[in-house]
C-alpha cells in the first residue's frame, strides 16, 4: 500500500445548522479552507467531528461529502469503528471505505476493554483485518471512551502486516513517541502526532506529520511550521513559532469544539457555532482569552508573512 502524504492532517470539525442538521455548505467552505491553508490530507468523522453524536447515516454522508469536496486534491481518512462488536465494526468499515476514503480508522479503546491485554487487542485487529479484505486501515488513540495507547511492539507488528497507513498518536510524551515513531518510520505506517508541544520531537523521530486540534482554529501556522521544517530542519524560526503555538494550544482545548467554530466564524467562515456536545457559556475571562488567541494568531501571521485564507 502507498504511504499517505506527510504534513498537516486536520481532525475536521462538523458544522451544524442552527436547527441541528449537518451544514454541508459550511462543510464545503471548511474543507476548502483546510486545503487552501496547505493541508496534506483530512481526518473526517473523528472525535473533533462529534462522531459519537452523529447517526450512522450522518457519518457516511459527512465522510462522502468531504471526499467529494476534496476531489483529487488531498486524501481523506475516516473512523470506521463504533462498537465493541468486531463483526459490526467490520461491516461499517466496508461502508465507510465505500465512501472513497484512503483508509478506515480504528478506535483503539473500542477494540478492547481497559482491563483486557494487548494480546486481546491484537486478536481483534486480526479478526477485523480478515473480515475487511485489503482495505487500508489506521488507528487512533482516541481519548473517548477511554485513552488506550499502543505499545511500540504492537505498532511494529501492525506495520509488518502492510495493512496500516495512519496512526494518530495521543501519548503526548516524547520518550513514548520516539520508541513508536522510530519503530515504524521505514514502513508505510505513517505516524501523525495529535500533540502540539511534542510536534517537533515526533518529526525528528520520523513522524510523517501532525493532527492537532488547534489546526481547526488556524491551520496556516502549522503548515508554515511543517514546510520550514521539511525544507531547513529545526531552525531558530521553527523553534520560536513552535513555542508560540505550544502556549496558544492551551486555550484551544477549552470549550472545544464550540470554541473552534466560534473562532472560525470570527475569522469570516460562514458557519454556525452550534455543537451537539453541551457547552457551558463562556465566562468573561474565557472571552478575553479567545480574543487574545485571535490577536496572537494575527500577530504570528504578520511576523512570519503567512498568507491567511480567510
Provide key terms for this protein:
TIM Barrel, single chain, eight-stranded parallel β-sheet, 310 residues, globular, 47% helix, alpha/beta
Regarding quaternary structure, how should these chains be classified? single chain
Order of helices and strands: EHEHEHEHHEHEHEHEHHHH
Q: If you compute it from the alpha carbons, what radius of gyration comes out, rounded to the nearest whole angstrom?
A: 19 Å
SS-based class: alpha/beta
Named at the architecture level, the CATH assignment is Alpha-Beta Barrel
CATH level-1 class? Alpha Beta
Describe this structure in words.
- The structure is a single chain.
- This protein is α/β, with parallel strands linked by helices and 310 residues long.
- It has a single domain (7-304), classed as Alpha-Beta Barrel (TIM Barrel), CATH 3.20.20.70.
- The protein has helices spanning 24-36, 56-70, 86-97, 108-111, 118-131, 152-161, 174-184, 199-204, 219-232, 236-252, 258-267, 284-304; strands at residues 7-8, 42-44, 76-79, 103-107, 137-140, 164-169, 190-193, 209-210.
- The protein has an eight-stranded parallel beta sheet with strand order 1-8-7-6-5-4-3-2.
- Helix 3 links the parallel strand 3 (76-79) and strand 4.
- It is globular and about 50 Å long.
- The mean pLDDT is 97.
